[in-house]
Amino acid sequence: MITLDKRLSAVAALVRAGSRVADIGTDHAYLPVYLVERGIVPSAIASDIGAGPLEAARRTVVGAALTDRIVCRLGDGLSTVMPDEVEDIAVAGMGGETIVAILDSAPWVRDTRLRLILQPMTHAEDLRRWLLENGFTIREEHLIQDKRHLYPVIAAEYTATPTEDELACYAGFFAAEEGRPYRQHMAEHLLRRAAGLNRAGNLVEAARLTGLSDLLRKM
Fold it and tell me: pTM for this one?
């Protein structure tokens, strides 16, 4: 049976039992095979924009004897998925801006029946901002630390209630102390940005980011 690393295990843990799942940017299809092998989901779509990764995904699915329950599809983002085919959508291992572009190109994800499980490698604040401004509620967020890297994993659902919360975009939606390392990391990141803006003469924006950094350090 397939085993997952810490990052993908956290993604798998947020998939709802019994849902049909699409894994966008599946690479080797480890996530869908893991979920189907263990009976967590009945079926899955493994999708990737690259022919090479998709061929690797097919080999994984064939090797697990799951070709009747996992379909592999070649294409860009969610263009390979029909709205009525899935309940849970996983997009992991990409930059936050790329995940935003994928979601923004598929307006049908604004559906209260769906859950998005998202794992941005960078710019998680931009992804959170897009989710909040587009009427999604972040139900859960967890932090995975692997060596020196911090990986947020987000579960979001559409509630049609757009909100703006700049501090939350940087702080994340972690429970209690779980997100402290992430908030400290983001505080330092904002200070570096503020220093660059100060040097460029943009004192107002530098002061705003410095203020956000101070708030993150106190959380």
Answer: 0.95
